[in-house]
Amino acid sequence: MRNEGKIGVWLIGALGSIATTVIIGALALRKGLTGPTGMLTETPPFDGVSLTAVENLEFGGCDVRREDFIQAAWHLSRATGAIAPQLIDSLQEELSAVAPYIVMGTACNCGEAIGQLAGGNATGKEQSLRDEIAGARACIQRFKEEKELRDVVVVNLASTEPPLDLQEAHLDLSALNVALDRNDTAAACASTIYAYAAIEEGCPYINFTPSTGALFPAIVHLAEKNGVPVMGSDGKTGETLVKSALAPMFMCRNLDVLSWEGFNILGNMDGSVLNHPKNCESKIRTKDQVLAKILGYTPHSRVRIDYVPSLDDQKTAWDFIHFRGFLGAKMSLQFIWQGFDSILAAPLVLDLVRLADLSKRRGESGLMPHLASYFKAPLGVSEHRLYEQYEMLMDYVRQVKNR
Ligand SMILES: NC(=O)c1ccc[n+]([C@@H]2O[C@H](COP(=O)([O-])OP(=O)(O)OC[C@H]3O[C@@H](n4cnc5c(N)ncnc54)[C@H](O)[C@@H]3O)[C@@H](O)[C@H]2O)c1
What we know:
By secondary structure, the protein is an alpha/beta fold. It is built from 15 helices and eleven strands. The chain has a seven-stranded parallel sheet with strand order 3-2-1-4-5-6-11, sandwiched between helices. Strand 5, helix 10 and strand 6 (229-232) form a beta-alpha-beta unit. Helix 6 crosses helix 9.
């Protein structure tokens, strides 16, 4: 298994908070200006695994807004305070080299909230679905050729789309192809176009968002057929991460969880898009399934997400857990999680890129269940307990080393 040369990272939603943080973080690592805290692939269990070095990652991508990339980096630094302005200053040259590789994307079937963000810039209505796919493929090809890359990994970091209601065309690859040929626009949205294009280009594809249009069964079949690894959905970075570590504790003590109420407030653009009920529905679906899967029963549970503009990238989650113990006594546990969403997400994205590239070099295709711990709704995996998911990854790493 050879690991030669540079690989590309094609970020969908390239001007957003996570994508910008991923790029700043990787460039800072390359220059020795920061350390890899938060990246699991830089911990001892991965010693001896042939992962592509962060220094060998090249970045590009697409967005539906026309913002200047350097301005996006400055905005992130000023608005959140999470990234030191000196860091942006010292990366001016490297950030400027990435900017020309951020191109216009599609807002096809993305709903009203994303349509407003795009403000008429993106493609989406005037082109056929097949043309959109061809356009997305051409962007990846150009990036790969101009940067002389061995391979490209595509990561969806775009705003959450409203849920796509699954029909026949989403369950079966030939039915999907017929729907695309007929330009049946109800069958696909932007995330579908990006996923289809990536897989046809042979690029591993990661869906870090809850958007259901990205990796439905017909798209996973396409990946299996083309020998391409894919995985999603919805990065597990905050409240759900804590939930998946904490819920097993109640099982281990045979305590009955009666209610688990979660209230999230955040203020960045992600929060403003999730303020639209349809987009929020996709997020709540992925957050909602964790408890029942871990506990084996469904306690009373509600997840709320509210938009509080002044918080910007800083997310606060307050969870109230009501539980019953011996002799029927009722007790409670509460926790407050406060974090910078993008700071938590970016190292996971870098890990996922390196692990998806490794899978492709190992000849794996279709879903990558060993990456379950990175996702709120890991596709093809019923295990939701964090430590068991971590062990799945460690088992995989041991297998890789033994081969
Ligand atoms: N931050 C976290 O901890 C976290 C965790 C899990 C999932 N996510 C998901 O990751 C995604 C990105 O989060 P973020 O905080 O960077 O959001 P963001 O709003 O800062 O960035 C999203 C970017 O995507 C762009 N975009 C929207 N539709 C697009 C399209 N069709 N094509 C190309 N670009 C498009 C927007 O213009 C924006 O620049 C969201 O879907 C979010 O729900 C975030």
